[in-house]
Amino acid sequence: MHSDVKLKPLKIGNVTVDFPVILAPMAGYTDVVMRTLARRYHCGMAYTEVTSAEGLVRGSKQTLHMLETAPGEWPIAAHIYGANPDILAQAAVFLERTGRFQTIDLNCGCPVAKVVAKGAGAALMKHPEKIAQIIRAIKQAVALPVTVKTRLGLSPDRANISEIAHAVEESGGSAIAIHARFVTGRHTGQADWPALARIKSECSIPVIGNGGVLSAEDVLRMVTETGVDGVMIGKAAVGNPWIFQEAWSVMHGYRSQPPSMQERRSVIEEHLRLLIVHKERAGKSRRHPQNSAELSAVLHFRAHLVGYIRGFKKSAEVRRTLQDMRRVADVMAAVNGLQAGETRSCG
């Protein structure tokens, strides 16, 4: 396999992303543990989970815990949501002072009802001028580059990504990441890559493409077909940190070996044990104060486990037992039940 298409280092303001294949922000997934494992396998940049600017300004312990980072985690975007420019600017000041983040990213695409009801997330897409106002407010408050993550529009009859991208650029945004679907489509249906190509041709700031990237080959295809400056991977990276290594190999003209069963087991166990430590630092859950850190970690890990075992012949059997898993030993017993050395039936 050989590719003449190269992903150049991505410049976001004064930040350089050497290999711009990026872990997308995903609520409930992209905590410090998932990001750490992805980075080990050539992930060039990661975003935090979507985090409330109001929660940061209030000093909410739960909100602050969502922004835990690992030593040397660089570059990382603090991915925040809100609708009030002053609150967002105050949150950005707090984030800059931590010294842990290289960019501030504004969520303009989250479809969750409680976020939209506050005029934040996807609701901002109705008002490109408000997005511009927020970017200007944050830029006045901090020196960090400000970026935006958004979608093509609320629905196909309200496709206003050109206006949004123009507003981001005109107000001094340093890059825009676009999930090439509409809010109404959530994560289903064909991603509209031609729309990414169009916005890339209209913008002078970097455009990061997202949506429909399920494999390393898709990374190459998106770059080839759209000309985007970076590629963002979301759900395909859940339980599959190796996708970044595979993408790095494909972009350098060769194919990497898939992880051995032994490596897969080792990473599953490491992910789980790091999650327990992460949960211990969080303290007791308000919703489930009776849960131990181990139980909280195992419950959280189930969705990751589905990704880790995808493609194995016995994965359906393991999925059927997910609800019974309470301890690390339960998870590892199920993983050990997958035949050692089995070749995966799909990538």
Beta strand %: 5-15%
How does CATH name the architecture of the largest domain? Alpha-Beta Barrel
Order of helices and strands: EEEHEEHHEHEHHEHEHEHEHHHHH
Overall CATH class of the largest domain = Alpha Beta
Name the CATH superfamily assignment of the largest domain.
Aldolase class I
**End-to-end distance:** 17 Å
CATH topology of the largest domain: TIM Barrel
Strand order of the largest sheet: 3-4-6-7-8-9-10-11
Arithmetic mean of pLDDT: 93
The total tally of domains equals 2
Please mark out the parts with pLDDT under 50 across 5 or more consecutive residues, or reply none.
Answer: 343-347
Helical content band: 40-55%
Shape descriptor: globular
| Secondary structural class | alpha/beta
Q: What characterizes the major β-sheet?
A: 8 strands, parallel, barrel
Would you report the number of β strands?
11
Notes on the protein architecture:
The protein has 2 domains: 10-251, Alpha-Beta Barrel (TIM Barrel); 261-336, no CATH class. The protein is globular. The chain has an 8-stranded parallel beta barrel, surrounded by 7 helices. With 347 residues, it is of the alpha/beta class. Helix 9 packs across helix 10 (242-251) and helix 11 packs antiparallel against helix 12. The chain contains 14 helices and 11 strands.
